[in-house]
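Recap from last week: sequence in, structure out.
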Amino acid sequence: MINFLCPVCKKELVRVENSLKCVNGHCYDISRKGIVNLLRSNKSRHGDDKRMVTARKAFLDKGYYAPLRDRISSLAVRYAGKECTLLDCGCGECHYTADIAAKLASAGINADIIGIDVSKEALNAGASRRTGARLAAASVFDIPLPDGSCDIVTALFSPFSGSEYLRVLKDGGVYITAFPLAEHLFELKKAVYDEPYPNKVSPLGIEGFELAEHGDCTFDMELSSNADIIALFEMTPYCYKTSPADRAKLDKLGKLAVRAAFGIAAYRKLT
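Predicted structure tokens:
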């Protein structure tokens, strides 16, 4: 099992009772839910708030994004060896982390799973899933793990931190990501905005990685309640960029047919 690093001095953290301590005396308490805060105060970010976390958990737990979840987990199983250290960057409330952990275990893979996120609200929700993952409040731009310690890094909709992913991955390690395609949730945007626009999609090439495989994951969803429509909207960044007048348009909707459209890619670290 790979130990976390101290965010101050980068020395190994060792568990002593209910804390993690380094040789230089820096100490970080482990919460009752098993989460350790390794965010430096001058670098901390609030991340998703309780409203967004609650909405996302409510929506995802109904299985609407199951096709995406299953594709991500199958990739993790495919690229994992008999033993695997997997880091989920921006793990949020651990919806995907939990499924990856379950699928790796079912495949007989001995996996050490670590999840990091800047949102303490999300991590608290993730801890309740009891995935067996070690969870830490930490930034993807300052990952508290040693160089070359991870076999797989997953990052789904979190900020991209290519240099850190390269640093913590072993040679030949795999980075798995998912991202919205141009038409993702366009029907939802049409219901809210007078002039909706498609998402911008970045090129697939990433410096330091070779593209191992990629594909699309598109599926239609029938949202049959206003609560589900609102939950979908509130789990997206649109929620905080929309005027009250446009947001109010959703209150009148009792059902909505909407298409989810994701790109999925697996990259191998170049040696």
